[in-house]
Amino acid sequence: MTQQPIMTDTATLALHRARARADAMFLHEAAADELQDRMAMVNKSFNSIAVVTAFPDFWRAVVPQATCVADTDTLDLVAQAHDLVLHAMSLHWANDPVGQIIQCRRALRPDGLFLSAALGGQSLHELRACLGQAEAEVTGGMSPRVAPMADLRDMGGLLQRAGLALPVADTQTLTVEYTSARHLMHDLRAMGETNALAARLRRPTRRTVLSRAEELYQDSFATPTGRVTATFEILYLTGWAPSENQPKPLRPGSATQRLADALNTQETKLRD
C-alpha cells in the first residue's frame, strides 16, 4: 500500500496556531458569515451540529450549540451522530483531505449536511511568487514556503470521492491591503498560518531574502497609495450524506423532451 505523503508538520502547525491572536481572525470571520448564510438558505433545522476546527473559542461563539472537535488526522466524531458538520478553515493543512471529508460524512445522519471552508490555491500567490524569486536570486535555489492549496476543481472532486451526494464547490476571493509585505507576513503569524510544511527550510530565512522579497512585492503589487495587496481565496464545499429521499440525477439519454424545443430555438447539427 502506498503511504500517504506528509505535507504538514502537525507539531509545528500546533505551535503556530497557539500563538494566533483573536484580533487576527478576519478570514475565519468571513468564512463564518458565508457558512451561516448557507445554513440559513437550507429549509431545514439542525439539531446536532459538529464543527471541525483548530480554533474552538472562535467557532463556539459563531455556533454556540455546536460540538467542536480538533482537526486531527482522526476526528473525534461519532458515526451518524450529527445532521450538520462544518469543517472550518483547516482543510488546507490536512495531510489527507479526502480522509477528513469521509470521516465527516460518516458522522452525518442520512440527508445530513456537510459544509467546509478552506483556503484555496490562489491564496497568497503574490507572496509565493516574490519569495520564490527573491530566494532564487539570493541563494540560487527555492524552498517550500506556502502550502500547495488545492484549486476549485480538485476540491469538488474530493466531495465525490468521499461519497457525498449533490456536491457543490465554489469560491470567494478577498483582496486585502497591507502597508508592506512585511506587515502581511506579520499578519499571517498572528493568524497561525505561517509555514508548517514538512519539507520547509529548517533554518531561519536570510534577511537579504526577506528584504528582496519585500522589494519585489512593492514593485509588483503596490496600489496607487503605496500599499500592497494580498489575495485570499476561500473555497466552500457543500455535500449531503446519501439518503433515499434525495433528488437523483436522470440517467444519460433518459430525457423525454429535446432541449431545442424547451428553448424554442432551431437545432443545428454539428458538421462531421
Keywords:
272 residues
Radius of gyration (Å) = 22 Å
Q: Assign an overall shape.
A: globular
Total of DSSP H or I helical runs spanning 4+ residues: 9
Mean pLDDT: 89
What order do the helices and strands follow? HHEHEEHEHHEHHEH
SSE-based structural type? alpha/beta
* Largest sheet composition: 6 strands, mixed
Q: How are the strands of the biggest sheet laid out side by side?
A: 2-1-3-4-6-5
Secondary structure: helix percent: 25-40%
Unreliable runs: none
% residues in beta strands = 15-25%
- Amino-to-carboxy terminus distance: 46 Å
Characterize the structure shown.
- This protein is of the alpha/beta class and 272 residues long.
- 36% of the residues lie in helices and 19% in strands.
- It is built from 9 helices and 6 strands.
- It has a 6-stranded mixed sheet, sandwiched between helices.
- Helix 5 packs across helix 8.
